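User: What would this chain look like folded?
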Amino acid sequence: MWVHTSLLTLAECTHIRDENGIRIITDEVKDHIEILLSPERGVMPIEPSIFVIDKARELAWQHGIFLKGSDALHVATAVFTGCQEFLTSDKRIKAEERKALAEKLGLRLCSPRETSLLPDRYR
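Assistant: Here's the prediction, encoded as structure tokens.
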């Protein structure tokens, strides 16, 4: 099984935050991120082609689902690749948008801990 993600994820994942919200960027953190997002761990980065970008616009134009550009690109990547779940910890995606994605596109947005598709060791 592959986990698909937008290539944009590789640019966005640059650090972790400690319990006080302070960014931590150490060699250990960098190594962990690179390993976590590697094909060897089953992560398949998807290039944002014109087809994926069109899907991102369709979220708003055809389905009335309005997301920030980067969020729309990530969701469109999931739709384009036929994902059943979209794992996110982003609390800014509103409940009505989550509901619309599930109802209109069959895409369930959930936290990694709530996934029904990954083994327990990845939650």
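The chain has one domain: 3-122. If you want, I can go into more detail on any region.
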